């Protein structure tokens, strides 16, 4: 999954909890090399003290931004200005915007218009306009759940897993139809890519599965077929809707 691209990671310190920063950075590394890592906030505020040790441990540069006027978010403005400066510097190929704030919707859209890959990370309360403005959006709760599962029993971990609904199943089915050959088979890698484009926050981990393949296998409506790959050792996985479904 890791790509050879440079990513600027910009974190809204006023809007993101300090927990699971290590897991968040490990997640970002799957998509590229985080060459710029900055977090924005008013560091004179007591609420940001939990971040300070984490910044040193993860080599994240704090950017001080005072709140000059009540009711105005100066942190958002500073982060947006920095993002545009970085964009025009030509030093990165993508951005990771870490926030649950819809104020960054236009920024994400503008960066994508410039040909940048944009990954969003935020809590499940994040408004949908910001989510769909990103190429991919990852919920912090997923990263938190993965950490908790290392110490919890399998039964207790299930309590925090979302149940896949008919809406998501229909989304998968329509995506398979979009890509299928005359026999109804579609390459699962292409299905996953198109699902991401249709819904940036679609992630098999939301439903308790590390990968898309076991998620598909758990749904009775679909069938999986593995085929030999002549050029590589790994097998190619295809999926289709079961006949009569």
What would you note in describing this structure?
By secondary structure, this protein is α/β, with parallel strands linked by helices. It has helices at residues 21-29, 51-57, 74-89, 105-113, 128-133, 140-149, 154-157, 166-179, 188-198, 212-217; strands spanning 6-12, 33-41, 61-64, 94-98, 117-122, 136-139, 186-187, 222-227, 236-241. Strands 3-2-1-4-5-6 form a six-stranded parallel β-sheet, sandwiched between helices. The chain has a three-stranded antiparallel β-sheet with strand order 7-9-8. Helix 5 links the parallel strand 5 and strand 6 (136-139). It is elongated. The relative contact order is 0.11.
- Uncertain runs are 153-160
Distance between the terminal alpha carbons, to the nearest Å? Answer: 33 Å
Strands side by side in the biggest sheet: 3-2-1-4-5-6
Structural class: alpha/beta
> How much is the radius of gyration in Å?
20 Å
DSSP summary, beta strand count: 9
Number of helices: 10
- Main β-sheet, in a few words? 6 strands, parallel
Percent of residues in β-strands: 15-25%
Spell out the key features of this protein.
245 residues; 20% strand; 9 strands; 6-stranded parallel sheet; 3-stranded antiparallel sheet; alpha/beta
């Amino acid at each position: 999954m890791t790509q050879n691209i440079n990513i600027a990671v910009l974190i809204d310190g006023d809007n993101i909890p300090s927990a699971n920063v290590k897991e968040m950075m490990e997640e970002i590394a799957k998509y590229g090399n985080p060459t710029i890592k900055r977090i924005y906030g008013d560091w004179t505020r007591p609420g940001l003290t939990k971040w300070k040790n984490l910044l040193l441990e993860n080599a994240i540069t704090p950017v001080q931004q005072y709140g000059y006027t009540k009711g105005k978010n100066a942190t958002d403005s500073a982060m947006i200005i920095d993002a545009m400066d970085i964009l025009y510097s030509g030093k990165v190929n993508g951005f990771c915007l870490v926030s649950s704030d819809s104020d960054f919707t236009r920024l994400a859209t503008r960066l994508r218009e410039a040909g940048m890959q944009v990954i969003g990370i935020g809590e499940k309360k994040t408004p949908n306009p910001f989510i769909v403005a990103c190429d991919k959006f990852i919920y912090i709760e997923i990263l938190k759940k993965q950490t908790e599962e290392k110490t919890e029993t399998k039964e207790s971990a299930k309590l925090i897993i979302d149940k896949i609904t008919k809406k998501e199943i229909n989304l998968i089915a329509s995506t398979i139809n979009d890509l299928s050959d005359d026999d109804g088979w579609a390459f699962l890698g292409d299905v996953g890519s198109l699902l991401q484009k249709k819904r940036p926050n679609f992630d098999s981990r939301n439903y308790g599965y590390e990968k898309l393949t076991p998620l598909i296998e758990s749904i009775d409506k679909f069938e999986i077929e593995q085929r030999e790959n002549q050029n590589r050792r790994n097998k190619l996985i295809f999926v289709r809707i079961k006949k009569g479904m």
